Amino acid sequence: MTSNPNETAGDQALLTFLAAQRDAVLSIVAGLDEDSWHRPVVPSGWTPAGLVEHLGGAEWHWFQGVVTGAQPEPPPEDEELTPYDPTAAFVSDLPSAEIIAFYRNQCAQSDAVLAATALSAQPRGKHGVPGQDEPPDVRWVVLHMIEETARHAGHLDIARELMDGQTGLGPR
What is the pTM of this model? Predict the structure, then answer.
């Protein structure tokens, strides 16, 4: 592999769009007070804290787990790992600073994977959801994360407007 395996204009455009969506997420939640950070404003019950934590977990899953094949660290002996429930509302009791740091860290780790991996490469790990096809290449993973991040940035946009009336936050 070369030092920059994603040199085509198309590859760079995808990486630029992914970075912009991540920046939008952080811009939308910037300035929220802790109460708003943990307050659900839609009937399904998710909170900004839970949604940003979910996005950090998605970054880990897709880039560390699926692209590189890494296995998650087991939880400490005194903690139980809660299985992922796709129907549960995304909530978290962690402070906003901790979740934002987690999200930024996961994005940085994802970027490190992408800096060393061609988008045409086949993932080394598995998504592992029964009945769903595995991603054919890293480019598919990047496209999926653009979609996932943009979707949840839109959710956060609406929540922010309902909480304090702020609109148009983040890069457009």
Answer: 0.91
